[in-house]
Design goal:
Structural class: alpha+beta
Order of helices and strands: HHHHEEEEEEHEE
Distance between the termini: 36 Å
Number of strands: 8
Radius of gyration: 19 Å
Shape: globular
């Protein structure tokens, strides 16, 4: 706790860092600021860092909200990966960007040029990962032409969890926790396996 004031004091960061992350990185609570703080946490050996970017639940006003969200995330994520890599931290830091479901491609609610939305879509969605043993430049999986169903290389959440545990050097079949008096696996009782195609 005593180290938090030093951690959050960005006064010693060079101008080049703020140029990389963007001017928003100087403003507390912005996504760019939290990405910069995540790099500072990683430098100090923090083993688990979670960042939130709220606002993706766009059931309306997609033309206004979505471009702003993408701009907010794109630069900051690029900056975080670039910054970690330039400091030699990316190879040992697993960065995952994702949510719990995707969005439908068809419209929800109003349908005007300036106001329409997208509903929740749990059948398929995208996650990206970098560093920490992930093979760069790989696209794994494919949806149909309507982005409605997965047609090639599906990855169940238990396989994704097995992949993360594998990258941490943990055998997902032996990693258990107590739940209601039983040994429970994070990856469940059905077959699961790391996704080898995305591993470096």
């Amino acid at each position: 706790q005593a180290s938090v004031p030093e951690l959050t004091d960005l006064g010693k960061e060079p101008a080049s860092v703020f140029e990389l992350y963007g001017e928003d990185s100087r403003k507390g609570g912005t996504f760019a600021n939290t990405c910069l703080l995540a790099r500072r946490l990683a430098e100090r050996g923090v083993r688990f860092i979670q960042i939130y970017q709220r606002g993706w639940d766009v059931h309306r006003e997609v033309p206004e909200v979505l471009p702003a969200m993408c701009k907010d995330v794109d630069r900051a994520c690029y900056a975080l990966l670039t910054d970690l890599d330039s400091r030699g931290l990316l190879k040992d830091t697993l960065v995952i960007f994702g949510g719990e479901f995707g969005r439908t491609i068809y419209s929800q609610g109003k349908l005007t040029p300036t106001d329409y939305g997208r509903d929740h879509h749990p059948r398929c969605f995208s996650i990206w990962a970098a560093g920490g043993g992930i093979k760069g430049g790989v696209v794994h999986g494919e949806t149909d032409e309507f982005s409605y169903n997965i047609v090639r290389d599906p990855v169940h959440v238990r396989d994704f969890q097995a992949t993360i545990l594998h990258l941490f050097g943990i055998d997902h079949e032996r990693f258990v926790h107590k739940y209601q008096g039983l040994d429970a696996r994070l990856t469940g009782v059905e077959p699961a396996a790391p996704v080898k195609a995305i591993l470096a």
